[in-house]
Amino acid sequence: EQDIIPTCRELGIGIVAYSPLGRGFLSLGPKMAENLADGDFRQSLPRFQVENLENNRKLYERVSAIAAKKGCTPSQLALAWVHHQGNDVVPIPGTTKIENL
């Protein structure tokens, strides 16, 4: 991040922030990993492995505390942070539920 972003800016290349909500982690919290459906590809990702659950919980609590101070959700905070990185940085959030759009 420290090298890539300045290089992209120097070359005039836009930056696309893929999965700015951590594949659902920042919208659902650490319990999300425990509730993934059978066959969900996220089960194979290190972030959602059992050995990372405690670290995920701590991270989510910290982000949630900052979001609460700002009067928003962790998801909104994450998207705002990405947006604040500059006009050349664009987040691509995704959802599986139409009501979340």
UniProtKB/TrEMBL annotation:
Pfam families: Aldo_ket_red (PF00248). The keyword NADP applies. GO terms for molecular function: oxidoreductase activity. Keywords: NADP, Oxidoreductase. Residues 1-101 form the NADP-dependent oxidoreductase domain. It comes from the Eukaryota. One of its GO terms (cellular component) is cytoplasm. Gene3D superfamilies: NADP-dependent oxidoreductase domain (3.20.20.100). PANTHER family: AFLATOXIN B1 ALDEHYDE REDUCTASE, PERAKINE REDUCTASE. This is TO33-12. It comes from Taraxacum officinale. The lineage of its organism: Eukaryota, Viridiplantae, Streptophyta, Embryophyta, Tracheophyta.
